[in-house]
Amino acid sequence: MEAFLVATGVVALAEMGDKTQLLSLVLAARFRRPWPIVLGIFAATVVNHALAGAVGNWVTHTLGPDVLRWILGGSFIAMALWMLIPDKLDDDELPKASRFGVFGTTLLAFFLAEMGDKTQIATVMLAARYVDAYAWVVFGTTLGMMLANAPVVWLGERIVKRVPIKLVHGISAALFLVLGAGALIGWS
Questions:
Q1: Within a 10 A sphere around the Cβ of 93, how many other Cβ atoms?
Q2: How far apart are CA 157 and CA 22, in angstroms?
Q3: Top-confidence range, 9-18, 121-130, 176-185
Q4: Residue 86 has what DSSP assignment?
């Protein structure tokens, strides 16, 4: 249960102001069909985070506990620093209308935007950290993504304008810093 709760909280916070959250806002404004967008985000996240979790699980079994502890500690601290850099969505990343419809366009755009993103890397690290709870990590990171993105699809700019993104990023950075320090000193 710890893996699920930590994964949900970390990803929900890390996703605030992230480029995939901005993509959710753009998709909602462009297509104005929330259900296929939310379902596309969900499907893309499940597949993406299941793959990321598998990588984290593989890394854990391949490297051994001592090397993994140092890599995880350094990675969580690096993630804390990365959280302090604001994301923006580039024009070439904006989804174009396609023959795949709203769901397919969202699925493809979101899956690709999530590749190498903070939340995908966090999923790899969390799956490596909670090696015996792979499914709980994937469920938690997926729930965290949905908690951060689904409301944006429905409520759009009203949420984005009222949430102090710098504060949320600061809290996320602090959480990643604590996880990194904990990994380095060997907290279980």
A1: 15
A2: 10
A3: 121-130
A4: P
Nearest to 73 by CA among 16, 128, 36: 128
Q: What is the pLDDT of residues 130-166, one digit of tens each?
A: 989 999 999 999 999 999 999 989 887 666 566 666 7
Measured distance CA(173)–CA(66) in Å, rounded:
24
Which residue intervals of the chain are DSSP H helices?
2-15, 19-31, 34-63, 65-83, 101-114, 118-129, 134-155, 157-162, 165-185
Q: What angle do CA 116, 39, 111 make, to 5 degrees?
A: 20
- CA separation for the pair 145, 148 (Å, rounded): 5
Among left, alpha and beta (phi > 0; psi -120 to 50; other), residue 117 is: beta
Separation CA 49–CA 55 (nearest Å): 10
109-129 residue pLDDT tens: 899 888 888 889 999 999 999
